[in-house]
Amino acid sequence: MTNQVINIRGRKAAFIEAGAGDPLVWLHGFADVHGAAGELQPFHTALARHRRVIALALPGVNGSDDLSGGSSADDIVFALLETLDTLGLPRFDLGGHCAGGWFAAEFAVRHPERVKTLALVGATGLFVPGHPAGDIFLHSQAQRGVDYSSLREMLFSSPDHPIAREFYPDGRAETEIEIRRYQMLRFGSLAGFRPPYFYNRALAGRLWRADMPARVIWGGLDRMVSAAHAEAYAQGLPGAGGSAHFIAGAGHAAHLEAPGEAARIVAELLQV
User: Alpha helices of 93-135 — where are they, by DSSP H?
Assistant: First the structure.
């Protein structure tokens, strides 16, 4: 496992790499942001037994520079394109969680020829009438960094889940971890995650372009992005088979709470 930073025309892009073989690019969300900061989780390491896992840090997060020209979905996808070109990855498996899943989907509809397979875990990005994504800013800022129970309940199956408490303990954490949280929330704000949150109205109508084999993985207790979003992705992506894979008892961060099951589903997609 190695932590690396590359320079792209003066912009730094950070990532962590593990495993060998064909590349699998993973884009983090709010819950698994740690996985792009040198601390791969069991889900990532399980996949690294079969693939060269490249966990990219999104712009402005965990060592990656902000985007100077803007932070719309188009800006982020273009930044990803430049990063992947610099890494010399003409074709790869792609996956992501939460906002990372959104941008994985945005990339896949724009550049389907480069994406071998697509795995989405609790992905935001779609406009589903009557089913808005949860307000992560309200749940994180209202507690002023002292009591994260509300945020833990949104991101995990229970605010008392061991992983939830490990990632978001009550009280102030070490400075590096607090900065990491701030950067992720700031990234969300810059990317336009304001009311209404976490979607691109055009994306649903473009999913047909992402015709590669796909899997939509969701926690059965996801309180941030409802099952209606899972169904919309599964029905919109031609290669998803029309139905999502729900992991019973898991929350929004299903791949962290049930890493073995989530990794098994992705590994089947990769035909390992």
Answer: 99-110
Cα-based distances in Å from 199 to 24, 103, 129, 243: 24, 10, 11, 21
Task: Return mean pLDDT, the chain.
Answer: 86
Q: Judge contact between 84 and 56, C-beta under 8 A.
A: no
Burial 181-214 (b: 16+ CB within 10 A, else e): bebbbebbebbbbeeebbbbeebbeebeebebbb
Residue 192 sits in a domain whose CATH number is 3.40.50.1820
Mind listing the pLDDT tens digit for each residue in 5-31? Answer: 999 988 999 999 999 999 999 999 887
pTM of the model: 0.90
| Core vs surface per residue 106-139: b (16+ CB within 10 A) or e | bbbbbbeebbbbbbbbbbbbbbbeeebbbbbbeb
State which residues form the domain around 114.
Answer: 2-269
Please say if the pLDDT value at position 132 is more than 50.
Answer: yes
Contact 168, 159 (CB under 8 A): no
CA dihedral (56, 62, 67, 68) positive or negative: negative
Number of domains composing the chain: 1
